[in-house]
Design brief:
4-stranded mixed β-sheet; alpha+beta; Nucleoside Triphosphate Pyrophosphohydrolase; 31% strand; two-stranded antiparallel sheet; globular; 31% helix
Length: 160
């Protein structure tokens, strides 16, 4: 029997979008592969996250800063992604995410980092909560991601 061919890793870009209470926009996935977008050939990282966020949530955002990279292997799906995490700000702070890809996402909610970290605390809990693997890896690999995001947003606010 021939061995399964392992595809080359792909690059995905995901935006971290916060509300005024420090919660982040998180999707409830339907399957093991979820939100975030593939970086297209020649595309800028921030252009990718802005495009994908608009396509998936209807939110108009601006990419501000890369804050993390995760190595995400979906063994069951034979997929491997290098995921670039970026902080984004909404053009309209009052705009709420919409469910624009019902085949991929049950809906969007604002979640606190503590809740996300608790959901990612072990593989069984993350699977039970249907937590997107790259998000689980982000909070495991960068346990202070909440501080990193808050600091970057505070720096941005001071620049205004």
């Amino acid at each position: 029997m021939a061995a399964a061919v392992n595809p080359h890793p792909r690059v995905a870009v995901i935006g971290i979008i916060s509300d005024d209470q420090g919660r982040v926009c998180a999707g409830r996935r339907i399957g093991p592969l979820g939100g975030g977008g593939h970086l297209e050939y020649g595309e800028d990282i921030f252009a990718c996250v802005e495009r994908e966020t608009l396509e998936e949530t209807g939110l108009v955002v601006r990419g501000l800063k890369v804050v993390g990279v995760t190595n995400d292997v979906f063994v069951e799906n034979n997929k491997h992604y290098i995921t670039i995490w970026t902080i984004c700000e909404r053009a309209d702070p009052e705009q709420q995410p919409e469910r624009l890809e019902p085949n991929k996402c049950e809906g969007w909610a604002w979640k606190g980092w503590d809740e996300i970290k608790a959901d990612a605390s072990d593989d069984e809990k993350a699977e039970e909560k249907n937590l997107f693997l790259p998000l689980a890896n982000l909070v495991r690999d960068f346990p202070d991601i909440d501080v990193i995001v808050a600091s970057a947003l505070a720096d941005k606010a001071q620049q205004r």
